Each structure stands twice: as structure tokens, then as C-alpha cells.
What does this fold into?
Amino acid sequence: MKSRNEMIEAVRAEMPERRWTHTVGVMETAVVLAERFGADPVKAELASILHDVAKYWQTSRMETIIREEGLPAELLQYDKELWHAPVGAFVAEGDYGVGDLEVLDAIRYHTSGREGMTLMDKVVCLADYMEPGRDFPAVHKIRELAEHSLEAALIAGFDSTISHLLEQGRRVYPLTVMARNDLILYVRESGR
Ligand SMILES: Nc1ncnc2c1ncn2[C@@H]1O[C@H](COP(=O)(O)OP(=O)(O)O)[C@@H](O)[C@H]1O
It folds into this structure.
């Protein structure tokens, strides 16, 4: 596996400066959330460093990887914004030598979420929604909820994404709906 510094330099070279600033925000937020909710902060930071590694890859390059490396082909029927997450996990494993499935899955599902999200999935996905550089109508509420509940904050995040997609008449990738349903059940049953 590449060292932390090698990863930071390599990932930084893959993106414009403003996206690197976002990545640093996600790293810092993920560490805070990991410490708050009992996840491994080192793994949370590692997943955060790499989460957007493929964000600026050409569509055709991502499409080739999705087709040839057996990533879910249904992704190709949905917003291209979703593709960089599973492709990023593939790159994290192949090019950066990350072997930890918890870290790889957190990268893979950071945009869509999934049913049965792990603690690490939740931390990285939520950090991506609420890092300090984010500014969208629901972000204040999300940050407030995140003081106490990872799940309630994530539900608010997914609500905001789904509403936005509905308003624009766009397709909703089903994993996000499943993630939200599952989190609602989790909150109801655990009382969090
Ligand atoms: N379930 C979904 N179905 C379709 N598109 C989605 C879904 N979830 C996220 N997206 C798309 O992905 C975008 C967010 O991706 P994200 O990785 O958070 O990018 P950024 O970091 O640039 O905000 C949303 O604005 C939306 O266009």
C-alpha cells in the first residue's frame, strides 16, 4: 500500500485545487465523526483521502472500467456522478494497494449509500455531505443532526439528494432509496 503522503500527493494531482480542499474537509470531518461514533479514525481518513480519486476521470475511462472489471453495469443507466465512487474503490485497491474491505466499501458507496451501510460507510458518506465547504439548503440541519445521530443526519442528506433529483425529473439510483429506507427502520428500532 502507498504511504499516506504518497496517496495525498497522487490524489491531489488527480483533481483541481477546490476539489482537493473538499477532500481535506471530508478527511477532517470523517475523523471527527469516527471519533464521535466509535469508528476507526485512521480508516475513515484513508477512505476520505481516496473517495473522489476518480471524480475527474473521463466518462469513457470510467465506463471502460465498469464494463471490463465487472462493476454493476446498471450504473451506466444512471447519473454519471455516481460512477466515480465504485470506480474509485477499484482504483484504491488496484493502484493504491488498499486491501481493507471496510475502507474500499466506504469509497464504493460514498455517493449512493446502500442497504445495510456499515459504520464506516455512514461516516464517510456523511462527511462528504457536511464537510465545512459544503453549502446547500439542508446542510445546517444535517450538521445539527450529526451532533447526535449519524443515521438521522444521513437520512436528511439522502432526503435532500432524492428531493433534488425528483424536482429535476431525474432518475434515482435505487441503492439510495434502499439506504434511506433501511436507515429509517434503524432509527425507529434503535430510538437514535
Ligand atoms: N441515488 C442517486 N441517483 C442518481 N443520482 C445521484 C444519486 N445520488 C447522488 N446522485 C448524483 O450524484 C451527485 C452527488 O455526488 P457526490 O459524489 O456527492 O458529488 P459531489 O461531491 O460533487 O457533490 C448528486 O448531485 C446527484 O447528481
Observations:
- The chain has one domain: 4-190.
- The two ends are 37 Å apart (CA to CA).
- Residues 7 and 140 are 31 Å apart (CA to CA).
- The chain has a mean pLDDT of 97.
